[in-house]
Amino acid sequence: MVTVLSVLTGITILLDLDKQQSAAPAAVADVIAWTPLSLQVPALCFFMLVLGTGPVATDLVSGAARTTWLTVNGRGIAYAAKSAVGVAFGTGTAAASALLGALSCAVTLAAAGTSQPAWDEIVAPAARFVVWMGCWALLCLATVALLRSRTVSVLFLVLWPLLGERIAGALLGYVPGLDGIGNWLPFAAGRAMLTDVSAYAEEDRSFVRALIGSHLPTPTAAAVFCLSTAAFAGAGMWAYCRKDLKKT
């Protein structure tokens, strides 16, 4: 599915890009990350959600954790190893998807006789895309470690970024001194990290910022999302190492 979506990115690029700025690097990078039909990132997230919640959930729910801990001689080592594998898989999949999408775009633009973008300027947005997926893998692991339920964790990771955080940000905005706090919430910052607003027409940018939910500049948004992920991953490691196993 990921491969198909990556190839479709190139096939549909001429429909998604502004005809007057068809080869602008920011626009091409945004297309590679989000298309076709804005499914690229959600599809990769769902793919990692299924795989990323499995290792820790299996340990804690099935009772296999004790065997794992004895094998590697430590709970922390076990969690770190699972995190490393998850990050490697998430970043590797995202990198392959971005590369395949870029190649598909290049071939499509060449076939259509459209000028190629400055591909070296797409490296930074693509790198943020890859880092974001690595962070998502860590968030999946940490959520299961904290909630100790794969089903609840999946529901949380689906609903919180889409609805829960937006509602929380809106409510916190009524607290004196917290006006604008929604801009700094993790997933709002994560969306701002991924989406280059400059890729959109001037008249569409306000609407895009409203969808993102954050006005943070890209470097700041990336730092907020990565630091939030690190804190959440640390909490997940603590929970994995400290909590007793679920009795079956």
SSE arrangement:
Elements (H helix, E strand, L loop, with lengths): L1 H10 L1 H4 L8 H10 L5 H13 L1 H9 L2 H8 L2 H37 L11 H25 L2 H23 L13 H9 L10 H8 L5 H25 L6
Question: How would you sum up this structure in a few lines?
Answer:
The chain has 248 residues and is mainly α. The protein is 73% helix and 0% strand. It contains twelve helices and no strands.
Structural class: mainly alpha
Q: Give Rg in angstroms.
A: 20 Å
Number of helices: 12
Q: Major sheet: size, sense and barrel closure?
A: none
End-to-end distance = 36 Å
SS strand fraction: under 5%
Weakly predicted, low-confidence segments: 244-248
Average of pLDDT: 78
What's the helical proportion of residues? over 70%
Total strands: the figure is 0
Order of helices and strands: HHHHHHHHHHHH
Describe this structure in words.
It is a single chain. This protein starts with a helix and ends in a 6-residue tail after the last helix. Helix 4 (40-52) packs antiparallel against helix 7 (75-111) and helix 7 packs antiparallel against helix 8 (123-147). By secondary structure, the protein is an all-alpha fold. The protein has helices at residues 2-11, 13-16, 25-34, 40-52, 54-62, 65-72, 75-111, 123-147, 150-172, 186-194, 205-212, 218-242. It is built from twelve helices and no strands. The protein is globular.
Keywords, please?
248 residues, mainly alpha, 73% helix, globular, disordered C terminus
